[in-house]
Amino acid sequence: MQRQKVDGQPAYVLHTYPFRETSLIVEAFTRDFGRVALLARGARRPRSAIRGLLLGFQPLEVSWAGKGEVLTLMKAEWQGGQPLLAGHALFCGYYLNELLLHLLPREDAHEALYAAYAETLRCFADGVQEADLRRFEKSLLQELGYGLTLATDAEGRAVESAGHYAYQIERGPVRLSRPGDSALSVSGKTLLDLAHEDFSDTRSLAEAKQLMRALMAHYLDGKQLETRKIFRELQEL
Amino acid sequence: MSTPSSLEELIEALRCLPGIGPKSAQRMAYHLLQRDRKGARRLADGMSHALEAIRHCSRCNTFTESDVCERCASTKRDASLLCVVETPVDMNMMEQTQAYNGLYYVIMGRLSPLDGVGPRELQLDRLLARACDGEVQEVILATNYTNEGEATAHYVSELLRSRGIKVTRIARGVPVGGELEYVDAGTLAQAMRERKNVEA
């Protein structure tokens, strides 16, 4: 494997794990290299210069060097412009990060997804809208190559707003004669609204959430999202 | 020559300490057995005694030898204030400030959704029960200013507020004696966003 040296790469921290006594493994989402694992030596020492900097949801510029799966973080610089997330937005941020950690393969560049992620976090700072989450999920699927067929049905006919459909994964919507009852049944209007990213109709928004949840569950391939589990537990209290 | 199995077990056991790999564990084991058998005995006794004697305070959840720790039992402290911290070390730091005379609750961790640490693992219901004992007037959230600490503070505050308890959060910003020139940009940015009115 080629030894690489990268300077000043825009990145977000997705997650960190303690490593040895004083180091951290940083799962970062970078603009030009996708998801990379960086070893931040000494980052947990009390006086470390980057302690407190390797914080999720903050735009950074990182430099690294090395080869193999874990690269060595050489430098991290704070970029600013993104208010710290708080409250509910923080939990939604964790949800995005968990999706990226599970679905994004290592070192696979997704510049458009990076931009969508940054934009979503910016929106989160002003309060989370369900629509932001749906938009991000849609661009995530698009970027991973699981793009959704929304404006036409599985047979190639235009989706009708008044019609009832069942979404068949990897094929597209299939017309039903009456409303279906599975998680993947949606109205034609929801499909069209999702295609145009118009979430002004609350019913479309609710159905889009159901549909996205079912799709994510499919692509996560049986993996349970910890963020969702914890969210449920918190609501039970 | 093969190592006796009890020696191997000791080496394996020592490796549970943070920062101790197989080499260091082996060195420690040989040192204890060859040069300091008395020390080894003390270590073993101290450890088994501590394991039996030390438990969590039924009020503040910190480590103690009795059912209720000395601090919680003290009558000199203001029982209407409850400061929530992540770890006993944080509590000690807070004590050193001599700026606070209320009581504590130690969570012994923080919410970390990506690591699967939720309210159940942290037994946040115990904190709720403690804060709702009728005596507490104000809960001060002193969890860390990391994302996890913030997430913890947010949820605890939601839960307590819905039960009609006043909740406050420790302030953050430019450190005492801090010169703007040398403060990190992230702190300064947040200090600007969270600026407050100057009281006359």
TrEMBL record, chain A:
Pfam families: RecO_C (PF02565), RecO_N (PF11967). Residues 9-78 form the DNA replication/recombination mediator RecO N-terminal domain. It comes from the Bacteria. InterPro entries: DNA_rep/recomb_RecO_N, NA-bd_OB-fold, RecO, RecO_C. Keywords: DNA damage, DNA recombination, DNA repair. NCBIfam families: reco (TIGR00613). Involved in DNA repair and RecF pathway recombination. Belongs to the RecO family. HAMAP family: RecO (MF_00201). This is DNA repair protein RecO.
From TrEMBL, chain B:
It comes from Azospira oryzae. InterPro entries: DNA_Rcmb_RecR, Rcmb_RecR, Rcmb_RecR_Znf, TOPRIM_dom, TOPRIM_RecR. Belongs to the RecR family. A zinc finger (C4-type) spans 57-72. Pfam families: RecR_C, RecR_HhH, RecR_ZnF, Toprim_4. The keyword DNA repair applies. May play a role in DNA repair. It seems to be involved in an RecBC-independent recombinational process of DNA repair. It may act with RecF and RecO. This is Recombination protein RecR. Residues 80-175 form the Toprim domain. NCBIfam families: recR. SMART domains: TOPRIM.
